[in-house]
Design a protein that fits this description.
There is one protein chain. By secondary structure, the protein is an alpha/beta fold. It has three domains: about 45 residues, Up-down Bundle (Transferase, Pyrimidine Nucleoside Phosphorylase, Chain A, domain 3), CATH 1.20.970.10; about 250 residues, Nucleoside phosphorylase/phosphoribosyltransferase catalytic domain (Pyrimidine Nucleoside Phosphorylase, Chain A, domain 2), CATH 3.40.1030; about 90 residues, Pyrimidine nucleoside phosphorylase-like, C-terminal domain (Aldehyde Oxidoreductase, domain 3), CATH 3.90.1170.30. The strands form three sheets. The chain has a six-stranded mixed sheet with strand order 3-2-1-4-5-13, with helices on both faces. It has a four-stranded antiparallel sheet with strand order 6-9-11-7, with helices on both faces. It has a three-stranded antiparallel sheet with strand order 10-8-12, with no helix packed on it. The relative contact order is 0.14. Bound molecules: uracil.
Length: about 425
């Protein structure tokens, strides 16, 4: 096989065979195919796309490029979820304790934040002593014993994706649905769970800006899951405003704790409960939505979900006192209230901008090697559709350094106002399976 013929074929909009895709991924991993040839094929895929069959083969070949976690010695159905990333997204922190209190096992590998989106691992590390670097055996033991664990993805999983993603990043070939779908799904498949729930976000704070693109991506990932025999479902959710009220690591941990205790914000709680319903049905714990919702509410109201959260933090070496009493979580030096300079109904909240502003406070990373300040961030006081007067609070800013004029100016550009009442938006737009 000559790789140049494979590039030529995709350039001419032809379907690649399974063997050709396997040859490519093998060559990426062993280094026998040079980056310039892979880059050419990536660009041909961006321009001419891939069929569902090719996309599933690509995901499968990538999954098998490294270690594949075997969770089969843990009894019961093992669930996993993945979010395409958003601003204020702390879903796994609240969902894990609640669904595991209902008897479903969650074995979750998570990532770190970069740019305007936060990462679950960084949020967890705002809890003193919390260890995200578990050995596979300890991870499995924890899932077996308490029903859930969250750890960082190990280096041995899906090496093909690491190489391809680094190349895509510098060759303008990230934004291709088959490439995104196979990249995400290869990692989910290699994590070894039986079911996968995808939270595909749309809006200006998300990877997919339009609902149509979010649905296309969700469909592409569901197709991969189906072809490879995994129950894969997706929620299409709104990212046109931050999820919940907080952005920033310790602040989001606090909000997840409140949600697990039944005192979380309405939109975030609804997202968590909807995800929980789908996952309990996938895991055959509940027969329908209503039964699932009741179980989830019982887990919250009985305090079982909160106990699960404390157990998980204790298992992973974290300070449980901070979960019992979130005022012990890292605290910023200053809290500044930002007041509205306008009046009217909040029409738009530029969530990506808020993510960037939180990052600039030190709460996120501009570059992979940057350190994080766990204490800083934003606590929103308004949602889209709220009516505000001049001087009403828009947000509390938690910061360690003086806010400069550029930051403050950018903050005020985050909001647009309307004289007319604006329609509130549903957090979960659609469920696909
Ligand atoms: N996230 C991934 O893991 N891969 C992509 O290609 C895009 C987003």
């Amino acid at each position: 096989m000559r790789f140049v013929d494979i590039i030529e074929k995709k350039k001419n909009k032809k379907e690649l065979t399974d063997d050709e895709i396997q040859f490519w991924i093998d060559g990426v991993v062993d280094g026998s195919i040079p980056d310039y040839q892979t880059s050419a094929l990536l660009m041909a895929i961006v321009l001419n796309s891939m069929t569902d069959h090719e996309t599933a083969k690509l995901a499968d070949a990538m999954k098998n490029s490294g270690h594949v976690m075997d969770l089969s010695d843990i009894e019961g159905i093992k669930a996993d979820k993945h979010s395409t990333g958003g601003v204020g997204d702390k879903t796994s922190l609240a969902l894990g304790p609640i669904i595991s209190a209902c008897g479903l096992k969650l074995a979750k590998m998570s990532g770190r934040g970069l740019g305007h989106t936060g990462g679950t691992l960084d949020k967890l590390e705002s809890i003193e002593g919390f260890n995200v670097f578990l050995k596979e055996e300890d991870f499995k033991k924890q899932v077996r014993e308490i029903g859930f664990a969250i750890m960082g993805q190990t280096g041995e999983l899906v090496p093909a994706d690491k190489k391809l993603y680094a190349l895509r990043d510098v060759t303008a070939t990230v934004d291709s649905i088959p490439l995104i779908a196979s990249s995400i799904m290869s990692k989910k498949l290699a994590s070894g769970s039986d079911t996968i729930l995808l939270d595909v976000k749309y809006g200006e704070g998300a990877f997919m800006h339009t609902i149509d693109d979010a649905k296309k991506l969700a469909r592409a990932m569901i197709n991969i899951g189906k072809k490879l025999g995994k129950d894969t479902r997706a929620m299409i959710t709104d990212m046109n405003q931050p999820l919940g009220n907080t952005i920033g690591n310790a602040l989001e941990v606090r909000e997840a704790i409140e949600t697990v205790r039944g005192e979380g914000p309405k939109d975030f709680t609804e997202l968590v409960l909807t995800a929980g319903e789908i996952m309990l049905m996938q895991g055959k714990i509940a027969k329908d939505k209503n039964e699932a919702r009741k179980m989830l509410n019982d887990a919250i109201n009985s305090g079982k979900a909160f106990d699960q959260l404390k157990k998980m933090v204790a298992y992973q070496g974290g300070n449980v006192d901070q979960i019992e009493n979130p005022t012990l979580l890292p605290k910023a030096k200053f809290i500044t209230e930002m007041k509205s300079k306008n009046e009217g109904y909040i029409e738009n909240i530029h969530s990506m901008n808020l993510g960037i502003l939180s990052m600039k406070l030190g709460g996120g990373r501009e570059r992979k090697e940057d350190d994080i300040n766990y204490a800083v961030g934003l606590e929103m006081k308004v949602k889209k559709g709220d009516k505000v007067k001049k001087g009403d609070p828009l947000c509390l800013v938690y910061h360690d350094k003086k806010l400069d004029n550029e930051w403050i100016e950018s903050f005020y550009h985050t909001f647009t106002y309307s004289k007319e009442k604006t329609k509130p938006i549903a957090i979960v737009e659609e469920i696909l399976q």
